[in-house]
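Incident log entry.

Two folding requests arrived from the same account within the same minute. Monitoring flagged them as a possible duplicate submission, but the sequences differ. Recording both here for audit purposes.

Request one:
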Amino acid sequence: MFLKGNPCIVLFVVLFQNVFGETREEAKKEIKLVLGYPLDAVSNFTEMATEHGYISEQHSVTTEDGYILTMFRISKGKKCKKPIRKPPVLLMHGLLMSSDSFMDSGPEAGLAYLISDLCYDLWAPNIRGNYYSKRHIKLNPSKDHEFWDFSNFEFGYYDIPASINYIINYTKSDKINYIGYSQGGSTFFIMNSERPEYNSKIGVGILLEPGSRHYYTRSQLFRWLGDTYQLALPTLYQAGLYEALPLGGFVQEAASFLCKDYALADFACKFALGLIDSFHPGSIKTETVRVLFGHFPAGTSVKNMAWYGQALNVDEFQNFDYGATGNLQQYGTSQPPAFNLSLVEVPVVIIHGRHDYLTSPADVEWVTSKLPNVLEQFYVEDPMWNHFDITYSQFTGRSILGKIKEYLDEFSV
């Protein structure tokens, strides 16, 4: 039951939540609804799916190094009127995001809805460190700083393989088809170069604005953020700060509170998104802006943010740089090893926008040139298409879904 109307109910909820049997999170959700937050902004993946008439499932995946990840599934889309096609589809989110990012623009534009409506068995994992995946078999993220000792390498080496293994074992499929957005592209490259046995477990990799090196990033705000984390890493560690930009943190809570207001969302919050990426007027609906900041930023490690800072300043796609002494201890060389992209043998499709300021066309062209099995590099026709449009644009159906469907159909039965 969602409480609306009289603000006095807020105090009633807080004082008597135990009487009603509500959890702290449920009470917090009720309070936010009273204060005018959109329902989707305070809902999780399964709640949003249910609200829009989709049936979803929640699964737990344990990695080889003990992280417990949450993965969601929509086994059949609401608009699917045919048998489910095989193999299953894994849809991987980007930096500081979660599986919710593929739901935030609603059932007419969110990729989780659209792909499941194409009659594909859709799985949406969550990388370690975001709010869905902050558990470990031994480590406590609130007490054990070792929990936060990860960056992109661990995502690609442990998290994605564990998710793929789980899906294959659960569905009895021989392989999966992979769709990776932004960081979900860089982790795909890492997995298939560091653990090449996973090439045979993927039919096709459809990579949306994929990350790798970020040498030509045009987003000045992203460059400042990455450089800041890289330079401040030792100081942050000394201060006992290991988690970056979590859901429920000051940045996310402030953004969510301010952007729930329609007027602020329509101007100031859209302007903020444009500063992070680039401006694409009319692409993201104001209602989507009101929702997305309820789930973004979703959190990661300080070390991962520092890795992005490093990736801004080297003309290579490489592992974490610990400095010459640390690299010798970690890798046996004074420089961190580059990922061998020639080992990524999966058939790959690159979908990209020319106005992307985060994963710039120059960096995408560079990584594409290193891959041995590129089926197509597709630039979105809209010249203003940018990075955030993948998850939040109202035009995903007409701009990128057709190309995604083309290759899913080719590699499915």
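Request two (distinct sequence, not a duplicate):
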Amino acid sequence: MTYTIPLIKFVAFLDLLAVGLIMPLIPSHVRQLGASHIYVGILGSVYSGFQLGSGPLIGSLSDLKGCRSILIYTLIVCSGAYLCMAFTTSIAIIILLRAVLGLFKQTQLLTKALVPEYEKNEKKQSAIFGKMAAISGMGITLGPIIGGHIAEDYPENGFYYIAGVVALCFILNAVSVYMLPQTNIKMKKTSEKIHSNQNIFQLIYNNSKESALELSKVDWSQYWEVFVFKALLGFAMGVYYSNYALYLKTQYELSPKHIGYVISFQGIIGAVSSFLMGYINSYYPNDKDFSHRNYHVFLLLSISIFGLCMSSNIMFYTVWLIPMAIGNAVGRLVTLEMILRKSDKEHKGTLIGASNSVASLSGVLSPMAAGLIGQYLGVKFVIYASLCSNVIALILSYKYKTRHIKVD
């Protein structure tokens, strides 16, 4: 039906709009509750750590039970977690809720896995992924602005209001997904018959067991190179963004307002680049495995980040942000497409989940690496770690491209 893809795009947008509303406020909120910087760091690590493990699990569950139904369940759980966050002042409970969100918050994974079920044309799928990323990018750009205004207007209870609004957003998304029609894709029959008298713990155990079995059926050896590209890209961008605001403040003495302008500018460039993914793909008619695009992404990123390192003032820095934002936005879509091109229809959710777990692993490691470099070498040297990661990926992507040309 014609409304399915726009509805999936709406779910992806509202998801990141909701995340953008509350995520920038959590660190300052827990600090106001009396938490130290260590606890603030734990909040990020706990979320990323659980995302690391839950990606393949949720992905394989979606292969077994269907993306639509699993997405509805996870949205309801996330809504409950944010609703609890709106009523608690306990730091320990907030950390626990972040763990729950890390385990179940796989909306972007599942919405991407839904697209092939409603659009069979692979060329159109690529354009849809690009538009979804662009629309989601607008959500994550608007969210912090709206959340910041609410928090400023209601300094004492603003966070709790926002948490309640976020919970409503997830419920609205669950209703939206429920409105999607059932697909004709046959789910795999489970090896064990699930009886109607089983309790919830038995169901969770059986589903987890089936998911683990599903993971073992994937030939992971043919995907490791793509996962390496995903990891290097995630680490490079994670390191860069970990000290982004601090870097601009110390190197160019920008105020928070002007830092916000730079961040918004970069977000807009990334969103436009994602939206034009279909147009970008038209320049690569023979690049069936996306190896050429992958190489060009890391070439563009390496050059642009080197330019950022050498920038003597904020004007040059802003100019180099344009190719960097384009490379980052396109690179995330290219690695996703490389995985989907290699995967079979039965394991697409599992592989997208594993891809997200690789990104989550980078999300755990990159802030620690950025912190260590900033502590012992200085904030200005953090960006060089991002450059090194991209150069390594550039060399590997060139070898990958060359090898695939010979095979063809």
